[in-house]
């Protein structure tokens, strides 16, 4: 017996103050091959991911191993991909597609052979600008009114009548703890030692999984203006300190645009009876032996333009932007700080559970000040490694 969690509203029976949920019987789930594949004009290791679809009672997809994965180029070049980990297939060396040529994906598993149609590599289009404006809109978390920075992109294609784009976004930002731990406990020495590496500032990477597609078809000019990317709120803001927005703009075909548009609509359905129901969306890949057999996924062939910008919160200070770092509010020194003799820690190391040595209790070098880990160690929020472009 399985419960419908996403697709059907629960039916309830009222009996005085009692509410009894009704469980629906759900047919067994049929596993389908899922192909996530993109081939671009970028000189890089190109990747294809193979997995099996899964039902509501599963938590993650099952990778498909042992397949043969080939990308063929119009004119004869063939790229044989190798499996580098379960379900992940890569070209052995960096390769780049050529604008104007056509490409086909072929996947052979132990059960069947699947192939896409030949897809034309679209020309990449330069990104004119990425910029932010201070505004008020619905919060990303609960829909309440929030102040923040709305980021936009502008782009223009002088070479064709209209364009289709898919956008992929990554945010990188600094996380700073208010009371970085300067010392760590050395149990063998039963004493403290100075940390070799600062854990005051870390770097968080946040990719977006949202589907973002746009077309200029039907517009008076082949131009995208003020296309909304991400809204960064003042409270709990990644824009407390240094912040970077990386945008990848994929020039895609009409068919790819329609596929992603339908996929986005399907994913945004709330699941009510009056809404669109989640279901199968056909891509450009078919089962060669049985074209009627469904397969999930799309082989995207696209020209890509990438651009990143780095911002500081002071850029919008004059407009009223005043970001709030919740760590500075929750980490109250007067409440959280404990001054402990080292002899107490030696006899009871559990005193350090969930805490770090913030600093010494000067002028007493045999006493230390303890603070919670979330206030003293940035590595619980991000990585100590800076992004390559950070400086």
Would you mind describing this structure in some detail?
The chain is mostly beta strands and 391 residues long. It folds into three domains: 12-123 and 253-302, no CATH class; 127-177 and 207-251 and 311-319; 183-202 and 327-380, no CATH class. The chain has five helices and 25 strands. It has helices spanning 254-267, 326-330, 333-336, 342-347, 373-376; strands at residues 12-15, 18-21, 33-40, 47-52, 62-63, 68-73, 78-85, 88-90, 102-108, 113-116, 119-120, 127-138, 145-156, 164-176, 183-186, 191-194, 201-207, 212-215, 223-233, 243-251, 285-287, 296-311, 338-341, 355-361, 364-372. The strands form five sheets. The chain has a 15-stranded mixed beta sheet that branches. A three-stranded antiparallel beta sheet has the order 12-13-19, with no helix packed on it. The chain has a three-stranded antiparallel beta sheet with strand order 23-25-24. Strand 6 (68-73) and strand 7 (78-85) form a beta hairpin. The chain is globular. It starts with 11 loop residues before the first strand and ends in a 15-residue tail after the last helix. The model is unreliable at 1-19 and 270-277 (pLDDT under 50).
């Amino acid at each position: 017996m399985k419960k419908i969690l996403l697709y059907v509203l629960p039916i309830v029976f009222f009996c005085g103050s009692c509410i009894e949920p009704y469980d629906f019987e759900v047919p067994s789930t049929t596993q389908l091959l899922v192909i996530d594949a993109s081939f671009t004009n970028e000189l890089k290791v190109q990747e294809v991911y193979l997995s099996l679809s899964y039902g509501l009672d599963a938590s993650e997809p099952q990778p498909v191993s042992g397949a043969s994965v080939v990308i063929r180029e119009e004119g004869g070049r063939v790229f044989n991909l190798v499996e580098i980990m379960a379900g992940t297939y890569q070209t052995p060396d960096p390769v780049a597609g050529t604008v104007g040529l056509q490409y086909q994906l072929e996947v052979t598993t132990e059960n069947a052979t699947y192939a896409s149609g030949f897809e034309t590599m679209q020309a990449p289009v330069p990104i004119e600008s990425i910029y932010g404006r201070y505004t008020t809109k619905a919060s990303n978390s609960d829909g309440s009114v929030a102040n923040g920075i709305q980021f936009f992109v502008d782009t223009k294609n002088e070479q064709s009548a209209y364009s289709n784009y898919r956008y992929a976004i990554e945010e990188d930002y600094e996380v700073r703890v208010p009371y970085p731990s300067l010392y760590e406990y050395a149990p063998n020495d039963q004493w403290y030692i100075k940390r070799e590496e600062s854990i005051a500032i870390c770097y968080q990477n946040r990719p977006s999984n949202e589907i973002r597609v746009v077309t200029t078809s039907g517009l008076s000019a082949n131009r995208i203006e003020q296309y909304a990317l991400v809204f960064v709120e003042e409270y709990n803001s990644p824009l407390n300190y240094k912040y970077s927005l990386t945008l990848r703009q994929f020039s895609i075909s009409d068919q790819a645009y329609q596929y992603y548009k339908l996929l986005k609509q399907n994913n945004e359905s709330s699941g009510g009876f009056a809404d669109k129901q989640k279901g199968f969306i056909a891509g450009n890949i078919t089962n060669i032996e049985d074209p009627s057999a469904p397969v999930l996924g799309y082989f995207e062939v696209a020209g890509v333009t990438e651009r990143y910008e780095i911002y500081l919160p002071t850029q919008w200070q004059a407009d009223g932007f005043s970001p709030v770092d919740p760590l500075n509010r929750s980490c109250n020194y007067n409440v959280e700080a404990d001054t402990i003799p080292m002899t107490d820690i030696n006899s009871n190391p559990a005193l350090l559970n969930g805490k770090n040595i913030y600093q010494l209790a000067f002028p007493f070098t045999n006493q230390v000040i303890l603070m919670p880990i979330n206030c003293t160690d940035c590595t619980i929020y991000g990585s100590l490694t800076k992004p390559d472009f950070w400086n």
